Amino acid sequence: MESNDTIHLLKECDAGTKMAVASINEVIGRVSGPDMRKVLIKSKDNHEKLGDEIHSKLIELGSEDKDPNPMAKGMSWMKTNVKMSMNESDATVADLITDGCNMGVKSLHKYLNQYRAADANSKSICMRLADIEEQLCRDLREYL
Length: 144
Prior knowledge:
Blueprint: H1 2-28, H2 34-60, H3 70-86, H4 90-114, H5 120-140
């Protein structure tokens, strides 16, 4: 049971890191402020590093990685493009990314509750991902 919960939790975290990187990549070219761009690049790097760690853990456990839900990814793309077409500003980017971070943190805590038998290391990884998301929200507040 622990192994299955561990794998499931890590897969959800893996999908979350990929979703975050894709979302940041989608908007970073539209950011005009260099300081905000630095915030996004730093967070993207943090997500990628943690994603690499998660991927290694999944390989150790004999499992494969997980891509984000295609429906969620499509809805995110559509929301981003609609909002940006109405107001292409750093504030809009901050709003979109903050919404994504909040959804990510909510999902991560849901998965922690759902996969309670996961090992302590995978739970720690999940909390580190939630911390990265929460830090990005805090860092973007001044741009809202």
